[in-house]
Amino acid sequence: VIVLMMTIPGLALFYGGMVRKKNVLSVLMQCFAACCLLTVVWMVVGYSLAFTEGTIDNRFVGGFDKVLLAGIGKDSLSGTIPESVFMTFQMTFFIITPALIVGAIVDRMKFSAFLFFMALWSIIVYAPVCHWVWGGGFLADDGVLDFAGGTVVHINAGIAGLVACLVLGRRTGYPTENMAPHNLTLTVIGASLLWVGWFGFNAGSAVAANGTAGMAMAVTQIATAVAALAWMFSEWLVHGKPSILGIASGAIAGLVAITPAAGFVDPKGALVIGAAAGVGCYICSTGLKKALGYDDSLDVFGVHGVGGIIGAILTGVFAVEAIGGTAGLLEGNFAQVPIQVYGVLATVVWSAVATFVILMVLKLIIGIRVNTPSETQLS
Asked: DSSP characters for 190-223?
């Protein structure tokens, strides 16, 4: 339930406060509609593709045994918990991952195209990657560590957001017009809801009330706090003053980076991961974006893509065998970092290529960008 809160109202308010006033209802509508649409898609086919035995090759995608949730009854179990609970928990991940992409394409994507994109992307991109990591696919078999979604959720959505903003093109008037956030109070409320909801995201991924969940909760809090401070001090050093948007963005970066590591690292590792995410995501979301000139409106790639990559790779450095069952680089397992890089690259390539193809097909068939008068009108 608290993971669902991360999308509505958490993400909706976080993004809604950062856009111009004329676009706030558009962002809220996209987040709310995505929640509704993706719930249905997950029930119809998404869960089956992610978490059943593959019909053709189980290494890459699941099958169709549980289409329309076939066979899931009141007494069905997934491990030690009701399968209905596990299915609904995973549904909330399925909802928020495509919804994260909203931040890269706000102000300029047609709503009809957005709905088609959400449905197609969730089936073609999210479900297979989820299966690779959590459904018995090849990344799990090859030893890639992702406790709660660094690759499945954040790298996946971050790369898709970068591709989407490049295909759509810049907002009209970017970067010469003032596109400052219209209400940072909403953004801070949204960020706070995301922070609280993330304990469901990370600690909940233990699928039990146990020591693993407790440690995941502890390291999530630590990494988030230090990342927020790292972004704030970086901004203070560069611009001479901190900002509320900066510290809130840093917190999200820390949450993202600790997600793959939450069930594998100790508090000391969390401290370093958070600091690396705060500084790294700040550099990417400011200097790199400005240097390359792409219009990732709300820094989906800079926070989720980069934060997810930092967290995924550093999981291979700081994993503690006594916590998650797998040792990292610091405990002498030199192979884990290359394995993590391999998982990152597989996710980046599939997300980038599939996202590009989906968008180009939609662009050809129905068009994906609103017309200029609709984009620039005041209300």
From this structure: HHHHHHHHHHHHHGGGGSSSSHHHHHHHHHHHHH
- Who contacts 155 (Cβ-Cβ below 8 Å, separation ≥6)? 304, 305, 308, 309, 312, 344, 347, 348, 351
**Contact between residue 162 and residue 173 where contact means Cβ atoms under 8 Å apart:** no
Q: 172-224: per-residue pLDDT in tens?
A: 999 888 899 999 999 999 999 999 999 999 999 999 999 999 999 999 999 99
What is the C-alpha separation between 319 and 333, in angstroms, rounded?
9
CB within 8 A of 11, min separation 6: which ones?
Answer: 31, 96, 99, 100, 102, 190, 194
Report the chain's C-alpha Rg in angstroms.
20
Could you tell me which residues come within 8 angstroms of residue 186 by beta carbon, excluding any fewer than 6 positions away?
A: 13, 14, 16, 17, 24
How far apart CA 157 and CA 7 sit, in angstroms, is 14
Pairwise CA distance, residues 327 & 320, whole Å: 5
- Residues 236/183/23/378 CA torsion (nearest 10 deg): -110
What digits encode the pLDDT tens for the residues 289-347?
889 989 999 999 999 999 999 999 999 999 999 999 999 999 999 999 999 999 999 99
Q: How far is CA 3 from CA 38, 89, 111, 177, 310, in A?
A: 14, 8, 25, 36, 23
Q: CA angle at residue 43 from 27 to 199, to 5 degrees? A: 60
Asked if 123 contacts 341 with a C-beta cutoff of 8 angstroms, the reply is no
* Contact in structure between 227 and 253 (CB atoms under 8 Å): yes
Give the number of other CB atoms < 10 A from CB of residue 12. 25
Q: What is the pLDDT of residue 372?
A: 87
> Is the whole model's pTM more than 0.85, yes or no?
yes
102 token code pair: 């909203």
Amino acid at 168: L
